[in-house]
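user: Kindly work through both lines:
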Amino acid sequence: MSTDTAIHGYSARKDSHLKRLRRVEGQVRGLQRMVEEDQYCIDILTQVSAATKALQSFSLELLDEHLAHCVVQAARRGGTEADEKVREASEAIARLVRS
């Protein structure tokens, strides 16, 4: 994971991404409330599924932006940086597929 100060692929949509993440955070807080209030298991699982889908959707969008921006820029420069960015993207895709 890079910690340099370069502009990342998601930077142009940062506000939109933060809004989506806040919505997911609200969903998770709702799950906590449901458990605290002893809600029906299936209702909780339905909400878990919704939160999971929201995070998956966010992940895919972020991955798309990473490929279109970070990986493409590194590929243009070539060399070991390009190889590293492709490897990182491949590993991220593998983690998403396994989750």
